[in-house]
Amino acid sequence: MKEQKNDRRSRYTKRFLKESLIELMEEKPINKISVSELCEKADINRSTFYNHYSDQYDLLQQMEEEIIDDVNTMLADCEYQKYDSKLMQILAYIFEYIRDNSRACRILLSEQGDVHFQRQILMIAHESYVTELVTRNRLEEDTATDIYLFIVNGSIGLIQSWLKNGMKKSAHEMAELIVRLSGGCVAPFVR
User: DNA-binding region spans which residues (predicted)?
Assistant: First the structure.
């Protein structure tokens, strides 16, 4: 029973620390946020913080890893028959996740966020998309990878704009936009 209580308390503390970090990152970049400031915002003491994280960067990294795990789990559990293209489905699910977790994603996928994390989110679709580009369009793997990296970086910009401007388009519309733009990037290379 005591272990259950401690586990619940630990989840509660971690949730408040994550929420506090997001609130602070809405005001300033992580390198301007101290552990003391984070603890004050979450209303916990520093020793409690250090029971869970080594510093604010560790907290941020664990938040990012949880999101990537969530997206991977969601994609592993989904049925790939909703749309014509597997890429369209993957992107639609990713956009739905971003929409459902918009507050955290708005910060983590913003210009203030970690570029490595942003690319990691979109690299989830990398293997299936590059394979599709190579086989369907008979492209060299290096060319397919270059096209994909170009598309990923443009997609990050679209996601940032979508989040910043209130997500007026649906997750499906955003996925469709990226798929259509991707097709335009691929077309000049098709033999």
Answer: 34-53
